Structure formats: C-alpha cells, structure tokens
Amino acid sequence: MEIFINKSEILGCLKLGFGLLCFVSMVGLLLLFLGFVCGQKWRCEWQKLTAFECGFDALSSTRSSFSMRFFLLALLFLVFDVEIVLLFPYIFSVSISWIKMSLYSKLYYFSFLLVLVLGLIHEMNEGTLDWKFD
C-alpha cells in the first residue's frame, strides 16, 4: 500500500508549525519583557551584600568554595543519565522483536553500549569516581 501526500498538505503542516513557533516565541519574548518591566530593580550595594552579625563585621568569609568533585560528578551524572534515557525506547522496542532485527541495528545498539561502558571505564581510571578525602 502506497501513501501519497499532497504538496498542499505538507505546506499546511509547515505553515502550522511555523505559526506555532512564532506564537511560542512571541509569548516567551512577552514574558521576558514583562519580567524586566515589572520586576524588582536590584542594585549592587556593598553594605547589602555583606553578612550581618549583630552590627559587627563578619568573623569569616561568607563565601564557601565549591568542590570541583561535586561539579564533575554532576556532569558525569547528566551525561550518563541522558545516554541511558536515550536507550529506553530502543530497549522496549528490542524486547519485542530482537530476532527480527537486522544485523546493522544490533551493531548500532552494541556500539552505543560500548561507547557508554568505555566512557565509564575511562572515568574510573581517571579517578573521578573515587572519593579520597585529603
């Protein structure tokens, strides 16, 4: 059974998609403009940014350093989490018809898993996942 699509149907879908894109963009710009107009004006004043301890100067710095290990771990989590989420639809479709799949599709799946595992092994060798407290 062949499927024929008219040019007018394609143009109608493109016009609808472009119209929705313009509408969403205009709503976003409107909300951004309203935020600038109606939002609080924030002025950077030194006295307001310092810590207040009963009228005295702060005993220590209010800024604490951010550990780079937490940042790297969060970044690794995002990368591997996105890759796992990309695998979910494939896993559910494969569980039904693994035998009917082509060799190319199976090789693509295993190469994706290989890249994922090699990345994890590399991060383990680099010591990013080791929590050594100095």
Automatic annotation (TrEMBL):
Localization, per the record, is:
Membrane; Mitochondrion membrane
* Regions crossing the membrane: 16-38, 70-91, 103-121
**Alphabetical keyword list:** Electron transport, Membrane, Mitochondrion, NAD, Respiratory chain, Translocase, Transmembrane, Transmembrane helix, Transport, Ubiquinone
The answer to whether UniProt assigns keyword Transmembrane helix to this entry is yes
E.C. number(s) listed in UniProt = 7.1.1.2
Q: What class of enzyme is it?
A: translocase
Q: Which family does it belong to?
A: Belongs to the complex I subunit 3 family.
Record's function text: Core subunit of the mitochondrial membrane respiratory chain NADH dehydrogenase (Complex I) which catalyzes electron transfer from NADH through the respiratory chain, using ubiquinone as an electron acceptor. Essential for the catalytic activity of complex I.
Name of the protein: NADH-ubiquinone oxidoreductase chain 3
Annotated source species: Mercenaria mercenaria
Instruction: Supply the source organism's classification.
Output: Eukaryota, Metazoa, Spiralia, Lophotrochozoa, Mollusca
Gene name, Swiss-Prot/TrEMBL: nad3
